[in-house]
Amino acid sequence: MVSKTDELDIFRDTPVRYMGYANEIGEAFRSMISPAAVRATYGVAFGYVFLDVIDKANKTFKKETKLAELSTPKESPKSKTAKIATDCLIWQSFASVIIPGFTINRICKLSSYLLSKTSASPKAGKILTTLIGLGSIPFIIHPIDHGCHIVMDKTIRPYLGIDPHVITE
């Protein structure tokens, strides 16, 4: 939730963020839709990632340019912007698209396999697999987000000279 002092981040604090989950929904429905439709959901999710990167880069550049006008910064606004954009691109790619998509794919694959060993009809198996995939999405989001922050805090962020992410939840 956004406090009164924080700026609203349309890509993190509004329903726009659900665009980043499009590929997870596509993976959950994989057994019921065409491969092209699944790929399209990845297009939506990566579109969200790129829009968030552009947003963070623009905000950082404006902020750093204003700070540079007031004093001599340690690094140029362009350099700081490139670092923030890189961090956002890597984090969003892994936390919003790659890891969740793979996770839902594997959950659905396992569910489908297990359901094929029961007396459920193939159609019921597809429906149940999709429901299991959709139902697992809320449970994987926060652990994946936190895990990505932890890994990036120990690897990429120190290399880029970016402060570790503060997890407030």
Provide the helix percentage.
over 70%
The main β sheet shows up as:
none
Please identify the structural class as seen in this structure.
mainly alpha
How many strands?
A: 0
> What is the total domain count?
1
Radius of gyration: 19 Å
Unreliable stretches (pLDDT < 50, length at least 5) are 1-5
Shape: elongated
Q: Strand content of the residues, in percent?
A: under 5%
**What is the straight-line distance between the termini?**
11 Å
Average pLDDT taken over every residue: 91
Number of helices: 5
Would you list the SSEs in sequence order as H and E? HHHHH
Structure description:
The protein has 169 residues and is an all-alpha fold. The chain has one domain. The protein is built from five helices and no strands. It has helices spanning 22-28, 35-70, 77-116, 122-154, 156-160. Helix 1 (22-28) runs parallel beside helix 3. The longest helix has 40 residues, at 77-116. It is elongated.
